[in-house]
Design a protein that fits this description.
About 40% of the residues lie in helices and about 20% in strands. The chain is α/β, with parallel strands linked by helices. The protein has a single domain, classed as Acetylglutamate kinase-like (Carbamate kinase), CATH 3.40.1160.10. The strands form four sheets. Strands 5-8-2-1-11-13-14-12 form an eight-stranded mixed sheet, sandwiched between helices. The radius of gyration is 20 Å and the shape is globular. Bound molecules: adenosine-5'-diphosphate and magnesium ion. The site of adenosine-5'-diphosphate has 17 residues, from helix 9. Magnesium ion (MG) binds next to loops.
């Protein structure tokens, strides 16, 4: 049996808690009133413990006055349900090839399942969240068919119902934030006919962050950051360097849309863009309320690319 804590132990625990809160004060002041967009994907979405920690972080940040918007992915679950229905998942450069049937599955999983579960999880921690996809509010998230070309041959590739975001009618998000509600965004947009298009969640997070003039965009993923040619994660990378890494195949698979999204976010004026290790519990609070980054900061630095 654990020994009963003494008055001195309790005093120490209480003091440590107070000290931590006081240390967080300048960070809280820095981000309060600012908009922070979180792309919630990777490991943090799969593990119940990590997921719980993300929800706690989101509710805490919201509680101290940060305007948090959560954009989620859900690729593995779409693949899993699709497989049970006999659909074999196919990807080109990290983008899911989406026929009509896959689109219906993606919509069911992303909007019907994942968004709602996240909104409920936030609710359980005492926050108020609302799940929404581009189909809602008159079609607030617009896209067109992604005109994708093969990275090597330049030949057009038919990705099916895969969209490229064209417009974010962000007022609905601003209204929700103003009313103290945390928007939870599913990566489903609509075309001009308001028919659903599957959009990579990294691209959705970037479009949303740009439209809201976000101070921070944090991609929670399942690696320790963006890895360079040596295969080790780098704490910071300039946009020039990252561009080069995409072009030379240092960055592959799901990191291609993510790295591209980072670069686009910087171009759209988002203050700080990071790819964070979602396997670290409370990665969001570590990123926002301490000096300890848990991944890679993509910088607008004017430095020239290194060989
Ligand atoms: P998410 O769910 O976060 O979008 P993805 O699987 O789409 O995750 O993308 C992250 C994956 O990208 C990593 O798990 C890793 O396998 C892959 N990857 C490819 N190139 C790199 C790189 N240079 N640095 C880090 N990860 C990379
Ligand atoms: Mg991905």
């Amino acid at each position: 049996m654990a020994p009963t804590p003494t008055a001195v132990d309790l005093d120490l625990a209480a003091r440590a808690r107070v000290a931590a809160l006081v240390e967080a004060l300048p960070y809280v002041q820095r981000w309060a009133g600012q908009t922070v967009v979180v792309k919630y994907g990777g490991a943090a979405q799969v593990s119940p413990e990590l997921s719980q920690a993300v929800m706690e972080d989101v509710v805490l940040l919201h509680q101290v006055g940060v305007n948090v918007v959560l954009c989620h992915g859900g690729g593995p679950t779409v693949s899993e349900l699709g497989k049970r229905l006999g659909i074999v998942p196919r990807f080109v450069d990290g983008l899911r090839v989406t026929d009509e049937e896959t689109m219906r599955v993606a919509q069911q999983v992303q909007v019907g399942l994942i968004s709602r579960d996240i909104a409920a999880a936030i609710g359980r921690r005492g926050g108020r969240a609302l799940g929404l996809s581009g189909q809602d509010a008159g079609g607030w998230l617009r896209a067109r068919l992604y005109p994708y070309t093969d990275r090597v041959t330049g030949a057009p590739v038919d990705l099916g119902r895969v969209g490229e975001v064209t417009e974010v009618r962000a007022q609905v998000l601003r209204d929700l934030l103003h009313d103290g509600i945390i928007p939870v965004v599913a990566p489903v947009a609509v075309d001009e006919q308001l028919d659903a298009l599957n959009v990579n969640a990294d691209a959705v997070a970037t479009a949303v962050a740009g439209a809201l003039g976000a101070a921070r965009l944090i991609f929670l993923t399942d690696v320790d950051g963006i890895r360079g040619p040596e295969g080790t994660p780098v704490p910071r990378v300039s946009r020039h360097q990252l561009d080069l890494w995409i072009a030379t195949g240092v960055v592959t698979g799901g990191m291609i849309p993510k790295a591209t999204a980072c670069l686009e976010a910087l171009s759209a004026g988002v203050g700080r863009v990071t790819v964070a290790d979602g396997r670290v519990p409370h990665a969001l609070l570590l990123e926002l309320l301490t000096d300890r980054g848990v991944g890679t900061l993509v910088e607008d630095a004017p430095s020239e690319p290194q060989p």
